[in-house]
Amino acid sequence: MWKPVQTEEVNPEAEGEGPLYPIPILQPDVQGQLATAEERLFDKLLPLALKTQAKWMPRGTRRGRFKALLHKIISARQRLRCLRSVLNTLLGPRERDVTSQLNAIAATKKLRREQVKRFFMNYRPAQVSSQLPVGQVMEDMAYKHCKPLLETQCRFWPAAETAAGNRANDELRSSAALPEPGERQRSGRSWIGRGARERKTQRWQMADKLRSGKTSREGHWDVRSASGLQHFQPSSSSRSVKNSTIRKVELGGMGSKSTSLPSLHSKYGGLGKSLVEVDEDVEDFPFEATAESRVGPAMATTFTEVWKPAPPAQKSAGPTSRYMTACERGGILPTPLDFITGGSSTLDAANWALADCDIIPVATMFRSVPEVKEVDLSQNTLLTDKSLVPLLQKMKRNPACATLTRLSLRQCVRLREKAIQEIINLVESSSGLSNLKILDVSGIPFPVRLQLDFCLALGEHSNLENLHLADVGLGSNPVAKQCLEALFRCNTLLALDLSWNAFGDEVFGAIGAYVSQPHVHLRSLSLSNCSSAGTEGTDQDRQSEQAKPFKPVNLMLECLSKAKSLTYLDISINRLDLTGALILEDALSRHRSLTELDVSRNPFGSLGAHSLMRMYAVSRLERLHCIESFDVGNARGEAFQVSNPEGVYALNLSLPYHRSILRMLLKYCKRLSLSPKQAFTDCSSNLPSFSEDEDGIFQVPSSGRMSFTFSSTRSLGPEMYQEPDRIPQALTERLEMTKIPLRMDKAVLMVPIFESLQDKLPLIDALAQNFLLDYSHIELLCNLGKAMMVQTILLRLLHTTYSCQLGRYMCNLLASTKAQYYQVRQRAMLSLTLTPSNPSMHYSLLMGEACDFFIVEGLRVLDRWETNTAARLGYMDISQRGNQSQVRNELFEGRRPSCRSICDWKLPLYGKLEFDFVGGPRPPAGVEPMQEDLFQKFFQDLMHSRCGPWQQLQALRTLAPYFYLTSSQLRELLGAIWDSEARIQLFHIFYYRLADIWNVKVCRARFSSAEFDVLMERLGPTKFFPYIQPEQAMIELDFSVHDHKLALTVLMALYQKEGAFLAEPRYIREDGTQDELVTGVPRAWARYSDLPRAGNFRAKYLVAPEKRNLKTRMEFLSTVGRWKTPALKQEDVEWWSILSDVSLDIIRFIELLDAKYVGDLKQAFRDIDGDGSGNGGISLHEFEEYCDRLEDSRFAKNRRERFRAIFRHLDATQEGNVSLQEWAYLETVKAELDRQTNELYSFILWHFGGLEKAWKTWEKNLDGVLSQDEWSEGLEQAGYFGACAELFSIIDQKGDGVITHAEFSRIRTGHAAEAFGRLSAVKLSEFPLIKGR
């Protein structure tokens, strides 16, 4: 971990805790075993950086800091334990509830078995007690609990088959005894297994066969005689039955809980489903033909001939006796329902697969039933009007009908108009279902002509509370709106199910209006799969070719905010996308009573998950069902981002989605205490006034169009140039205001959602984009997810703990392996070490990565703050595109975004975004840079780090806000990084950390021409303009770019103020033609409005030193460059030259003069001018005469022309005379040559350890000389940063194009003496000798 520096002000023996300074990087372990190379380098350099500023001096000792850190870790662990205890507290009762429910179900089943036993023991005839045909076996009955029933059943079926003529009487006797479990019958059948298979979908095969035969003279046969069952064989003279009386009776399709068998005495002789259909031309069908193959088992102990009148029924006082009498007369097997046995006042026959013959006897019970609370015949798909109409009619005549509170006919799909009309009559009649509270007719196809009458009857009901009308065809009714209007007149209605009815936009709009009415008190509303297709927009928009898909259910969703009593809502399977998700968020985020929401199987996609999770976190919802909702949908759509809503909007207020966006923006303004006038700018029309109702809902127009730019940072934020120390804290507070802190109770409720999702990434991304998390939240998700997801969770959620450095420290410990830790740190390093007080650098970000998206959000806020500060201070716009932005060269997916500024751009959640950020606070006037001795130690530690260039860059970038540098110090740092791109990045980062911006040319001089062009493109010509030292600068500008034109106006203003000279001017027009500007640069170009709209301009700025207007240059530096500098004099500036702007002849000329005058170039000027007799200037004639006396083989060719070119270069004013000040230009070139040579020698010593080793490495051809190609290739491979070509010319004393060993050895003498002296103090032996990079 980081060791604080012991200073004189701090007592090393003290044990006080001291404040913890927020260090951007903390190692994840105390021993430092997992620390990366850049982290170790950061920890080593940080104390030196902090020494430069007393206010950043760390207080406290190592022990105190460790104790404070340990205390915070313990506090975080306590919060985690609290979260775990809450989980156990909340989830524990659920487990106990499940256990109690299972116990209650088991007790209920046991009670039901006892009721079934008592029923058959009480109502079966005594003479057949050993042969009672039990017609069902319960699903959960085991052999050991039901032995008597199974024994009776197993005896009945052999007897029935014998009676039908299929088996012999002796086989009956052999099967009378109950076999043991697993014992095989002699016939190869297991009667126990056969009985247990009754719960299957098909009824027993024997029960569906044909029963035919002729009765005895007494009118019936009796299978219960004491002497045993006797089979009656019908005679051959049996009368035939005409084909017209033989019909096929459908008895199949029974349910899985069938407990009764079809009647064997139907109107046509009990013909079953297995009857072979008879051709129409057959006259007679004798019963004799159906013996053996068509005879099935007897389904009752007796049956009556249907063609003879039935004997009069005996009167019975009890309902059960009436039912048994009706069953005996009709030959119907009794159904052991609790209602029939008298054990309950509830007729619960749901999913019993009852047929009409099973319900008709039940109707007889209603004559004497004193009370009927519930009737549930749902899922009995065989019931028709034949049985339901009599049942409903007798219910109406029975006084017990007034006690009925629940009627369920769900999925009785064969009911037709008569039964529905009876239901309407029951509901309408005062003597009917007056106390009905629950009505379920879902799945019944209602005739269209009866739907309105049915709804009118229900609307007038005074007690109805729960109504289920799912899949009744209500959406196909032209008057569906009137039907719903009638339904919502029922003031007592609490639950309404309209699922699986396809409604249009008009009906949905009506539902939304009805639900929000004050007299409606719905608590539950189900609209699953009700949305039909449509088009988005107004009628005119819907007829256009650009019409977009429209969700009619959206019209209803925005009205839900006014449904104050709603507690449950089901809108699943309605094809809702991210637009519907935002409408739900807008409507339900502040709902007072809604606790459960089902949005399953809607294609919200990963973008819709953001809205749903935000809504779930801030609302009172306790359950959110979102099965198969986040996996399907558009992952690259344009979603509204609540946490970052800046951008340009064009809204059509006739659409619910756009109205919701407007309301969300107004809520955002209210949360940040902004007025709409402050946030809404560039409006297409007058901004209307927005008011709130009593529930806090903004009232917005429902028609018209609006276009505007929304910005919430125009009037917020610190003064970027006056309060740089407040920027990090202000940014943290800003992000905390826009994000949602995840409460502990909501984190617990999200656990089931997280576990139910197959693809958990949408939920994780929603948390990463919109929430503030704690360490305990991230640890919980890591524990819930699989081991392979830990890295993904950490990478996407680590930045959500940005307000707590300790939280990030503890989250790092969650990485299970070192490889996981390194990968997370590498990909999230930029977000973890973002420096808001110095954000300038080149960014390349993946918008799909949450950590990169977080960086873009922060930079947009900083950009807007700086724009606001510049506007308040009256600074001119120096942005690239004239949009006041600090962002340059932005490219999204390789193309420039189609927006005015990145601040006005709706950020996508995918793709690659690249841009240059050039902004941030400038150094205060008179700021102190790092002391030279500290810098040398700092530089030594950097060299010892053995880090690569990008690792060094990461460490230095994180340290940049802690200290300032001089241009010379920055130049040395640049020399320690051998990668060209890393060097450019480092200069970009430290450009606004320079304490002497007027000397920046010292640092710029070391860049090559290509690197300088890259820097100019990234920083911009106005921010990187050489305001103080523009001499010899080659300016290339593009008239189509705003800041290029502004830089030209500055150049022209200087040109006119100083009387300078623009050499080598060139103007290329928009059409590609070239103008040499023979008459000079137009003076009108000093005005921005008079500049051409397009084209390119290039020129070199030349001015005599005595004509420099330093005051004007300082003014431009302050007003245009926004730098704060003290009052400067000529001698305060370290005038410098760049070798790339100087010809090789000038360098060789300087070498000649330096060798002759031993560095005193002023003496050379006096010799040329005439010592004591000169006029203070050198004419061309004097210069030529002097040069003729110089002897050097490098000027052998074209000697006169080359010396004239040198003279013209020195004559900056082109007056034909070189003054002493102009001659001093050679001093600046010599200073740069000396420094370049020193840096080269230092580099060779650091990299190779000596000149001899470097010579052997570079001299590959073994010819004893170094060519220029070998020289350039060797320096490039070694990573040297400097003017390679110019240095080659200096070392090549003979000018023959090669460097000999003797010339190479001269590097250590002359110019390199100073470098060797400086390096001796740095202990060269301690430097690592790195062979190559």
General description of the model:
Mean pLDDT is 76; it is low at 1-32, 54-63, 123-306, 535-549 and 1309-1333. It is built from 46 helices and 32 strands. The strands form 10 sheets. A 10-stranded parallel β-sheet has the order 3-4-5-6-7-8-9-12-13-14. It is an alpha/beta fold. Strand 8, helix 13 and strand 9 form a beta-alpha-beta unit.
Question: Top keywords for this entry?
Answer:
elongated, repeat, 46 helices, alpha/beta, disordered N terminus, 1333 residues, EF_hand_dom, LRR-containing_regulator
Oligomer: single chain
Give the averaged pLDDT, no decimals.
76
Secondary-structure-based class equals alpha/beta
Rg estimate, integer Å: 47 Å
- Main sheet? 10 strands, parallel
Individual helix count: 46
Give the termini separation. Answer: 28 Å
Domain EF-hand: 1156-1193, 1284-1314
Protein name: EF-hand domain-containing protein
GO molecular function: calcium ion binding
Pfam families: EF-hand_5, LRR_6
Entry summary:
This protein has 1333 residues and is of the alpha/beta class. The chain has 46 helices and 32 strands.
